[in-house]
Specification:
- It is built from 28 helices and 14 strands.
- It is an alpha+beta fold.
- Among the domains are: about 80 residues, no CATH class; about 280 residues, no CATH class; about 120 residues, Rossmann fold (3-Layer(aba) Sandwich), CATH 3.40.50.
- The chain has a five-stranded mixed sheet with strand order 11-10-12-14-13, sandwiched between helices. Strands 2-8-5-6 form a four-stranded antiparallel sheet, with no helix packed on it. It has a three-stranded antiparallel sheet with strand order 3-4-7, with no helix packed on it.
- β3 and β4 form a beta hairpin.
- α1 packs parallel to α3 and α19 packs across α21.
Length: about 750
């Protein structure tokens, strides 16, 4: 049912009032059903609202429970008391309970907050901001639904937002605003982008500069060359030491394949494309120099593969956006990707992310080409093979198969539209309408079967031992799947951050804050335009973002790498919007639109470009090398040094010192009982800690972990003698904070005898 109103002062006022009422109802209903209303004392001893409760559930004289975020007069507390004769339920008015409400030595097993009437109501300080935020989002969504054709706006969005707010908030605990802010901010920016489209609905949006193809291609090559320059800068970071833990095994496997001639990597926790590419580069290098290179050289060669593929991804993105829209948008999108900090950093590791993004974009390009120009059958088959290759670069590349499914659904949708234009005409905004996108049903089924075979072939060609050594492959694959479900150190669920963990912790750094926020406005702009190409870009963003939120593994120190595949498509959306953002000026000022668009693009591009370049310079003198230099000058050779992990700590210490890691068997025993006393009583002279190791345990997300309490206590009792810090450029696996502690006092210096001349 479609509910729409003409935008008169009366209907606008009614919409505002309705939004406020729905916001209050949805928030109070979520408040009532939130897990925060159920406190089981045996499992909630760390709940800050609960004081004086013992592990055996017996209360002490200082027992108290208070929930100040609820309006007291509209709440009651149901207390479950365990007695020898059975459980007893006691009701107390309000949401505060003290020892005086019970007899001596009572055993409380649960406290449940319930409403006196229909819902629990929040206190003014707790509920005012989120209720107003939800209402404002409802009002803006109504504005975003305005249609120039019918000259009306819809009342459906407020009801959808009310239902979504209830669902998301009721699944989480009470500090709604802290984590819900990012979901609210994203929704507001997307809605603002839709309103932008309504206010500035330029007619001449689609432009082409086809007459200047040579200039365009030269600019695209220049942008690609700039992308390569920034990616290859600092590519030798850390060497001859190794600073990325995932690179250690991969370079040894690649070198081992060249050395032994055995192409079975015997390792399938990650796909094998990058292993074979690194081994191939190593083999070529050995032919040129006559010997197999050492591990640092192998590491550099493997990183070169990622840097090259990351650079070529910029050119592929330009071709995609030019094919879907126009060359100007393509150039802007390519420049944004060339400078995007997350994509730049991810292109310097022997990790699967840059390779997967490259093959994803190549696959996407041929999908778009098939939809726009054809031919259908060969385009589907080639795209399917490339999707398989993408899955062989990183297992999540299997999601690219959904692009192939989109082509088939497009063909079916066109059949329905042509059969009954009146009934299915509304589908035109979602599907590409081209004459070549037609195929008899029998051939469609046959092409689908062939596409599945070619997808499998694309995977097996690059990962042949997934079949030849299938038992090891399945063992490692299931192990990786279990790891993603279990989480990394702790599980971080999607609902605990309202599906916006990566929006908060990843996206703002991945694109730089201004570009990241504007990319969300651009998504709203595309959603409101409602063209097939727009929905295809938005679908690609969600296709890679939602699974990254869904998995429980979000490993520090670089959880943001899971959204790397989203970055090119966000750059595409932002490039399209920037190329049209100054369109209104074109009507009043000659060349005003072009000049303003260029100025806005430079302004947005400056932040990520300058950061990525400065970051590439800073990693050449990583804080770990700075710490190594200080240690070599100030710590006596032969001293016993305790470190967390050699990848995260000052490098190559074992050359001059007796080193033990927390990651080792003996070091792990010391870590489990970590304290000032245990460290001082140990045989070690110095302790060196990296924020890549201890930093996660200072994060509130890890507060239940045993090491969280231990590290906080340790840092309150011990002060480092030296700190190395470069917080501005600690992005990725670079520049951690390095803390050096002295565990043993230095022996007093021996007096020096001065001989007087005879």
């Amino acid at each position: 049912m479609k509910v729409s109103l003409k935008p008169t002062p009366l209907t606008i006022s009614a919409t505002v009032i309705l939004s406020l009422i729905l916001a209050v109802i949805s928030f109070c209903a979520a408040l009532t059903d939130s897990p925060s209303t159920r406190i089981v004392t045996a499992y909630s001893l760390y709940d800050i609202r609960l004081q004086g409760a013992k592990p055996n559930a017996r209360i002490s004289p200082d027992f108290s429970f208070s929930e100040p975020r609820l309006a007291q007069r509209f709440a009651k507390s149901r207390i479950v008391i365990e007695r020898p004769g059975g459980s007893e339920t006691v009701y107390i008015g309000g949401s505060s309970v003290t020892y005086s409400d019970f007899g001596r030595g009572e055993k409380i097993t649960g406290i449940f907050l319930e409403p006196r009437l229909l819902f629990l109501l929040p206190s003014a300080s707790f509920g005012l901001l989120p209720i107003l935020g939800i209402a404002l989002l409802m009002i803006l969504s109504c504005a975003a639904s305005y249609s120039r054709a019918s000259k009306s706006f819809s009342l459906i969005p407020p009801f959808i937002i009310a239902a979504a707010s209830y669902y998301l908030l009721s699944a989480n605990r009470y500090p709604f605003w802290d984590r819900g802010f990012w979901l609210w901010a994203a929704a507001m920016l997307v809605s603002a982008g839709s309103v932008w489209r309504i206010l500035f609905n330029g007619r001449s949006e689609e432009r082409s500069i086809a007459k200047r193809q040579t200039v365009v291609l030269l600019l695209a090559v220049f942008v690609t060359a700039a992308a390569a320059l920034v990616r290859f800068q600092g590519l030798d970071f850390g060497l001859p030491a190794f600073f990325h833990p995932d690179e250690g095994r991969k370079m040894k496997i690649a070198r081992g394949m060249v050395e032994s001639g055995d192409l079975n990597p015997h390792y399938f926790r990650h796909p094998t494309f990058l292993l074979y590419a690194t081994a191939g580069m190593t083999w070529i290098n050995s032919l040129i120099h006559g010997s197999i290179p050492d591990l640092p050289t192998v590491d550099y060669l493997g990183r070169s593969v990622s840097a090259a593929l990351g650079s070529f991804s910029v050119l592929i993105l330009f071709l995609i956006v030019r094919l879907l829209y126009d060359a100007r948008s393509g150039l802007i999108a390519a420049a944004l990707l060339a400078a995007a900090p997350l994509h730049v950093v991810s292109s310097r590791y022997i990790k699967e992310d840059a390779a997967m993004v490259f093959f994803t974009l190549v696959c996407f390009y041929f999908v778009v080409r098939t939809l726009k120009k054809g031919p259908l059958i060969s385009g589907v088959l080639l795209s399917s093979f490339l999707a398989g290759v993408s899955a062989s670069s990183k297992y999540s590349g299997i999601l690219n198969s959904l692009f192939i499914a989109f082509i088939f659904s497009n063909v079916i949708a066109l059949k329905l539209m042509r059969m009954n234009p009146k009934l299915f005409g509304w589908m035109r905004c979602f599907w590409f309408d081209s004459p070549h996108l037609t195929l008899p049903l029998g051939k469609l089924v046959a092409v689908g079967a062939a596409a599945l075979c070619l997808f499998a072939a694309g995977f097996v060609v690059i990962s042949p031992y997934s079949v030849l050594d299938h038992e090891k492959f399945l063992f490692d694959f299931i192990g990786e799947k279990t790891h993603m479900e279990r989480g990394h150190t702790v599980a971080i669920t999607a609902i605990s951050f309202f599906w916006t963990y990566h929006l908060h912790f990843s996206l703002l750094k991945a694109l730089h804050p201004i570009a990241a926020l504007l990319s969300l406005i651009a998504c709203g702009y595309l959603a409101k335009r409602g063209k097939p190409a727009d929905f295809l870009i938005l679908a690609a963003i969600l296709l890679f973002y939602l699974p990254a939120e869904y998995v429980n593994a979000k490993p520090e120190p670089q959880p943001e790498r899971y959204i790397v595949p989203c970055i090119p498509f966000l750059c595409a959306a932002l490039g399209i919007w920037l190329s049209r953002a100054a369109e209104p000026l074109k009507r009043s000022i000659p060349f005003g639109g072009s000049v303003a668009a260029a100025a806005l693009t430079i302004l947005v591009l400056w932040g990520p470009a300058s950061y990525s370049w400065q970051h590439s310079q800073s990693i050449k003198n990583d804080t770990r090398w700075q710490a190594r230099e200080w240690v070599s000058k100030n710590v006596p050779k032969g001293s016993k040094v305790l470190i967390d992990w050699h990848f995260y700590s000052a490098p190559l210490l074992d050359r001059d010192y007796k080193v033990m890691e927390f990651k080792s068997k003996e070091g792990n025993k010391l870590l489990r009982s970590l304290s000032k006393d245990s460290l001082i009583s140990s045989e070690y002279d110095y302790l060196i800690l990296s924020s890549f190791f201890y930093g996660r345990f200072l994060n509130p997300l890890y507060r239940a972990h045993n090491l969280s309490h231990r590290f906080k206590e340790l840092f309150s009792e011990m002060k480092p003698v030296k700190v190395f810090k470069e917080s501005s450029f600690s992005y990725g696996f670079h520049n951690p904070d390095i803390l050096v502690f002295r565990l043993k006092k230095r022996p007093p210096a021996r007096p020096t005898r001065h001989l007087s001349p005879s």
